[in-house]
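Reviewer 2 asked us to include a model.

Predict the structure of this chain.
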Amino acid sequence: MGTHFRPAVTSDVYGKTHPEYYAYFNGSRHPGKASQWCLTNDEVFELVSRRIDSIFKANPGKNIISVSQNDGNFTNCTCDQCKAIDDYEGALSGSVVTFLNKLAARFPDKEFSTLAYLYTMQPPKHIKPLPNVNIMLCDIDCNREVSLTENASGREFVRAMEGWSAISDNIFIWDYGINFDNYVSPFPNFHILQDNIRLFRKNHATMHFSQISSSRGGDFAELRSYLVNKLMWNPELNVDSLLHHFLNGYYGPAGFSIRIHQSDGRCPAGQRHKALDLRFTCFTQIRDAKA
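Predicted model (structure tokens):
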């Protein structure tokens, strides 16, 4: 089960009468559909606690819920109380973890997942998530055509991941192996998936969600889903063998030609947009293979 901040303290109900429930920045409170909460407001905590209690009571047998910031970068609360926590912790995740720890203490038999995402990607310096607080760490800002250790944005994420793994063994990775610049363009980054998954395992990730354009129309959606699922079960499998097995089984006689095309078309570091310019030789090869 899960919720962003919005449904639990909706601005349609509280925005006009209780603007203090919402994030303060740029000199005013900001109630709205995508607003963040003021995480040091005691009334907000009680409202959220009651909402969570009702959700669990309505769903017996469910034991984990996501309570996470809304989308939007640097829209966090900077009131004196929230800012004091974040300044002390040296990261904007400080007030989030403080709030989640309070929820985790209120419901010790439940588990709470929260995003470490955009402005909350960096871990706090002092407070540690309670064991029943799950950190869902997202690498949305990283380049995806090379492995995380091979580009500056990826290395920043790795440092954040190492920081979280030093204070928690309950980490959920939300990984993006997709080209958002052009969803349907060729994006041959299959060779980086194993390195990244091994890195997640090394840093205490116990759960992994891979957003990899697995729906029809994405670049080799079926192959991408197959490969990532296999590596999630065992990151030490031989990737070449997995690729050959799938391509030959799925494409038949054309599988070998497609594999050659993929090997020739790897994205060099920093060349994400040039994935649009890859040669479409595979289509000629497929035609020849069927002839």
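The two ends are 51 Å apart (CA to CA). The beta strands are 2-4, 24-25, 28-29, 64-68, 111-116, 133-138, 171-176, 205-211. We have added this to the supplementary material.
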